[in-house]
Amino acid sequence: MVPPAPTPAAPASGGPSGTPRSAWPDEEAFREAAHDQGWTDGLPVVPATPERVAACLATVGLAPDAVLGAVPTREVTVTAELAAVNAVMAGCRPEHFPVVVAAVRAHLDEHGNCHSTTGTLSGAAHAVIVNGPVCGELGIASGAGCLGPGFRANASIGRALRLVIRNACRAVPGGLDRATFSWPLRYSFCFGEDETVPGWRPLHVQRGFAPDESAVTVHSVMRMISAWDSTSRTPEGVCDSLVAETRVHGMSGDAFLGDGINVVYVVGKEHQRFFVDAGWSKERMQEYLWPRLTAPTAAPRDRWVNLGAPANILIVGAGGAGMAETWILFPHLAWAVTRPVERVTLTP
After folding, report:
1. Are 235 and 276 in contact (CB under 8 A)?
2. Measured between alpha carbons, how far is 345 from 171 in angstroms, rounded to an integer?
3. What is the dihedral of CA 152, 153, 154, 155, to 10 degrees?
């Protein structure tokens, strides 16, 4: 017998639609109930038993009713217990949960703009970029294939944020999620940064954290484009190809976001080596890219890129050898927000 499971949206009082708590005879019955009640992304989920939820909460030292953030426009408050329930359902182990908490807090930051990025017709996804020692400890992939399937920590942590968005923030297709098509990136999108690139400060260090701290950056993604360039052999050449690809699409903003919006370049190994060999830091890349990205438009398919400062260009080293490419993560209407991973040391 499986113990009574907390429900994804309101464990203390009922399910996402006020469904009372129930005891299910086995895990298969819970999984079927989750599909029937609309608590899942369409894939099977792990039953969120009280013991599993408590094990997650213990890793962060938070009370079940501790508030991680809110969506005022939806009258939604996300508690630690709600996040833990969805993390368990997504397949997270307890040690993954501190990363999930950091991701939820980042997403629910005012400038993470949850209401817009989860309800938009464009179907924005949310990239969870992890930095620091926690990547190695949890096996969060940053090398070959890191943007795709096959890595438990990447898949379950990214999926946990999406289930929180669905079950706690009420972004359900046909309801508050108004995506015209949506896209597979919304199942799960989490990866680590390769922090071994010589001369490159990790993303979290650039954003004010110490190298030995762990942190999560959540970036809303409206489109993801591969800037494939196998001909350039210089830092300037690679950067110019990134500028050209970015300006084909352009980036706008609004009064709420001001000049704080970001673009993320996930630079692969074949491109990295041209910068490393020439002694280019991330900061030098940012200084080269920024005036070219923000220059006045010069042609019909040359669009302005709204970036308030060079530091708004986020550069992440990741991926494996082979293709000479960099992935561009264009934003929806949100800042990329970074939050620390805070963990409790558990005594055996």
Report:
1. no
2. 34
3. 50
Tokens of 37: 């009640």
pLDDT value of position 348: 54
Q: Do 79 and 57 form a contact (C-beta atoms < 8 A)?
A: no
**Which letter, b or e, does each residue of 207-246 get, where b requires 16 or more Cβ atoms within 10 Å of its Cβ?**
bebeeebbbbbbbbbbebeebebeebeebeebbbbbbebb
Instruction: List phi, psi (to 5°) of 80.
Output: -60, -40
Query: Hey, what domains does the chain have and what are their CATH numbers?
Result: 27-220 (no CATH), 223-330 (3.30.1330)
- Cβ contacts of 244 within 8 Å, gap of 6 or more: none
> Are 47 and 30 contacting, i.e. CB atoms less than 8 angstroms apart?
yes
What pLDDT does residue 245 have? 96
| pLDDT value of position 17 | 32
Q: What pLDDT, on a 0 to 100 scale, did the predictor assign at position 345?
A: 74
Helices (H) and strands (E) in the chain, counts: 11, 10
> For residues 95 and 104, what is the distance between their CA atoms, to the nearest angstrom?
16
Residue ranges of the chain with per-residue pLDDT less than 50 = 1-20
CA-based nearest residue to 196, from 341, 319, 99: 319
Q: Is 326 helix (H, G, I), strand (E, B) or coil?
A: strand
**pLDDT of 196:** 97
Cα distances (angstroms) measured from residue 71 to each of 9, 76, 102, 146, 254: 14, 5, 16, 31, 19
Residue 314, strand partner residues: 264
Tokens of 137: 């400890």
